[in-house]
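ok posting inputs for the adenosine-5'-diphosphate job
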Amino acid sequence: MDICVRDVRFRYACATQCAVSGVTFTVRAGEKVALVGASGCGKSTLLRLIAGLERPSYGVIAIGGHIVADARTFVPAERRGIGYVFQDYALFPHMTVAQNIVFGLRSWGKHQKQQRCDELLSLISLEAYARAYPHELSGGQQQRVALARALAPQPAALLLDEPFSNLDAALHEEIRAQLAHMLSRARVTTICVTHDESDTIGLADRVLHLSGCAIVEPVRAALHAVGRA
Ligand code: ADP
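and the output
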């Protein structure tokens, strides 16, 4: 499922300046892209626009060949078939870890749900916490549960906003490697906002640099694309 962003602009209601001003790029189906850029340049806002949590003021967003946002169309987040993990995690506080993870699997059978939940608990190394509640977890553990919940319904596309920011170095590397393998195997189109150079190497096929209104592909990514990195 490819993601096309064409000349997208967006200004928050209370703001005087655009948070995103005229951004254009395409992520091919199955491609994993790291989105980097200075703090405040609009990376999180861009993910929120693609997810359907904000509506562009101008421009077009298409997912899997279907327009999901333009001047006349706005497909809400729950109908875009995209998984996302934002920085606030937004876990359901009254549900256990396991219940949070299977939340999006309402149409699955009990056995399938259990199997998927076990698989994801293993991915995030939280097998012992299935019955814990979010308030009993550290920030890093909550972040891992949010990741598992987003992956559970096997979305064709995934948006990640600093998904490893609360993990220590060893766990960061381990979970990123497993995630990269899982995303490649399932050909999940992925956009990952990160400030960590190791994520651009360990997770992404390509790096997109958001700078002002432009997307720039750095030299390293361009060399990588022609097999010279
Ligand atoms: P980044 O993810 O690159 O750090 P953001 O997308 O979070 O950047 O923010 C882009 C711009 O939009 C910043 O100037 C920020 O202050 C502003 N902004 C972000 N969220 C809001 C909001 N909810 N209301 C108003 N302005 C916002």
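notes: Confidence is low (pLDDT under 50) at residues 219-223, 225-229. DSSP finds seven helices and ten strands in the chain.
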